[in-house]
Amino acid sequence: MVQIYIKKVEKLGQWTMIELQGELESRYNNGLDGNSVGDLHFTKKGIPLLIIGHHILYGKVVVLDKPFAVLEKTHPLGYHAESSQDSEAEKLEQCVTSYAVQAVVKTKIVFTSRPKPIIVNVCRKV
User: Fold this and answer.
1) Which residues in the chain come in under a pLDDT of 70?
2) Does residue 123 form part of some domain?
3) Number of domains the chain contains
4) pTM (2 d.p.)
């Protein structure tokens, strides 16, 4: 039997997932890791807007049926084999990998509509 130890962090964050339909591609084909995808805003009525480049997406906030926990793996400390003073239980406890709950995800923002182009009218002097 495998036991997984989970501990709670003192200040637990509350996160929100973003769900998009379709694919996002980087302009330079170097991936999205570490890059800004777009700007997330909310209207006065609480409707989420996602602006990606010259496109805008409208979404809605949905409460999840079952919340998710965001876990961070904490590596075992290890033990020294030559320290015979430690009991077997203490040695086992030092070798077990545990997880810390960093945040809880209770809501998600869903963008299901197609992106609409942002068009700006520029007045030209004649």
Assistant:
1) 1-5, 8, 75-96, 126
2) no
3) 1
4) 0.68
